[in-house]
Design goal:
The protein is 57% helix and 7% strand. The chain has 109 residues and is mainly alpha-helical. GO terms for molecular function: DNA binding.
């Protein structure tokens, strides 16, 4: 399901794609957790993502062009990989990791 962004602003577009916490966590696990398969992403999630949410986010990230899904043949599993656009999100993820947790906790409180 591909939606048209609310505006032409690149920040708005990024927020619409990356603003969902589960989407960011799925990308994190693909980037830094070396998880490429549905089962690895599901069982390796520290946050305990539900299978229906994971399935939905994988479809959204694939539709947004951040992940590719290599279709599985009979008896094989589908593999997810970062696209060039997904790789371009890496610096954002690195910046998110570098922010101290104490700063973020106080900002949300």
């Amino acid at each position: 399901m591909h939606r048209t962004p609310r505006s032409g602003c690149p920040i708005n577009t990024a927020v619409e794609v990356l603003g969902d916490p589960w989407a960011m966590l799925v990308l994190r696990d693909v980037m830094f957790g070396n998880r490429r398969y549905f089962r690895e992403l599901l069982l390796g999630s520290e946050e305990g993502i539900a299978s229906n949410i994971l399935s939905s986010r994988l479809k959204q990230l694939t539709a947004a062009g951040l992940l590719t899904r290599e279709d599985a043949h009979r008896g094989q599993r589908a593999m997810y990989s970062l696209t060039e656009a997904g790789i371009q999100v890496l610096p954002i993820m690195v910046q998110c990791r570098s922010v101290k947790a104490s700063v973020l906790v106080s900002a949300v409180s």
